[in-house]
Design a protein that fits this description.
seven-stranded mixed beta sheet, Rossmann fold
Length: about 375
């Protein structure tokens, strides 16, 4: 099978059709293979899941309040579903605020923080209740600007491009503000042939800003052509070892059908680089993911926290929220009845959410290798983010 065919197989099957496919995800301590498909078609023998789950289930967030002073909160899948806040969440935020808890939002949104604030206000939250609102898109933007005031680790590959004034970018975008995002940070949109960098911030458009009449390829205009251009572009990029900045490492979005996110493209591109002859180390170095579970967002969130053990990460996704919180030495609270794993928990638990949560977690741990031989285990499990 040639590289083009291999690329197509990877890109169509990783997230974009939600079919099972092992993809590479890099962590600070190595690489693990993790299915981009959720666990809803995997099963484990019932005997391997105890009738009374050994996970630490709590009735609500009140059970955590006395133990933690800082709450790191995911947005989509914990606080809201993209359209409305989940029941009880607005009141829970207010109760935590009244108890003088530090509330910090950690979002893997590719957009800048202003967009997150607009979303919060629209859904009935008060942005002033949060000490920090951190989006992966905002951190990525500041990195693209060469901001040396960021209180987190940076990416030497990107810094070198900025110093050398190599600032032509090929954009895989959402179709919403992609051009302004790049231009206002000092970069020029480019064709893939001339690009110094790829930015993966969406899975809806390909902005091949090379001056041709058909500059923007939209997936809505035809998926076959979109995937053809995407595969062709990534193959060209891989031959030139063009680095990629992934501004949202999520692989799927917690909507019906689990539609794909930029993390799926990043994983595919890293695999393409490796299949094309790059060493594993080189392939990893050329794909930088900003957001959970990677350290930059946690470094910023915990910059004023003397002890990460006084913080708890509340999230719905094992691979990003819970993994990232655990690696940052925080406690973790896994919300299972809303968000990305909710359908699997319901299906595999057959109405018993404790059994479903245990099964999903067992499956997740069996399908990945990361942080040596450590097994991921959230500190707490809750049905919802409610008091």
């Amino acid at each position: 099978m040639g590289i083009i065919s291999t690329c197509k197989l990877l890109l169509v099957s990783v997230g974009f059709t939600a079919a099972f496919m092992p993809v590479i995800m890099t962590t600070g301590t190595g690489t693990f293979l993790q299915s981009s498909k959720d666990t809803n078609t995997n099963t484990v023998e019932e005997s391997r899941v105890s009738a009374s789950s050994s996970l630490n289930h709590v009735d609500g967030i009140e059970a955590l309040s006395s133990s933690y002073s800082t709450f790191l909160l995911d947005m989509w899948g914990v606080m809201h579903n993209g359209s409305v806040p989940y029941e009880g969440v607005v009141d829970t935020i207010q109760t935590l605020k009244d108890a003088n808890k530090r509330l910090i939002i950690l979002s893997n949104s590719s957009k800048r923080v202003g967009n997150a604030k607009k979303m919060l206000n629209k859904l009935g939250f008060n942005e002033e209740d949060f000490e920090q609102i951190i989006t992966s898109g905002e951190i990525s933007y500041r990195m693209l600007c060469g901001d040396d005031t960021l209180e987190c680790s940076t990416w030497s590959v990107l810094q070198d491009l900025i110093v050398q004034k190599k600032k032509k970018v090929f954009v895989l975008g959402s179709g919403d503000g992609d051009e302004d995002y790049c231009k206002s940070s000092g970069w020029t949109l480019s064709s893939i042939e001339d690009a110094d960098l790829i930015i993966a911030r969406g899975t809806f458009t390909i902005n091949n800003g090379g001056g041709s009449d058909n500059v923007v390829n939209k997936k809505d205009d035809g998926e076959e052509e979109y995937f053809r251009v995407l595969n062709e572009s990534l193959e060209i990029a891989a031959r030139k070892n063009v680095p990629m900045l992934v501004t949202n490492p999520d692989k799927v979005r917690p909507d019906e059908g689990l539609p794909p996110m930029p993390g799926a493209i990043g994983d595919s591109y890293e695999k393409i680089l490796y299949l094309g002859g790059s060493s594993q180390t080189q392939a990893q170095s050329l794909v930088k993911r900003i957001g959970k579970p990677y350290p930059e967002v946690y470094e910023l969130a915990l910059s004023n926290c003397d002890d990460p053990g006084t913080a708890v990460m509340v999230g719905d996704a094992l691979e990003t929220d819970v993994t990232g919180g655990a690696k940052a030495k925080c406690a973790t609270a896994w919300v299972v009845n809303d968000g990305i794993h909710s359908a699997s928990v319901d299906e595999l638990g057959e109405g018993n959410y404790e059994k479903g949560a245990e099964t999903v977690l067992v499956n997740f741990n069996e399908q990945k290798e990361y942080v040596g031989d450590d097994v991921l285990r959230p500190s707490y499990v809750a049905k919802h983010f409610r008091w």
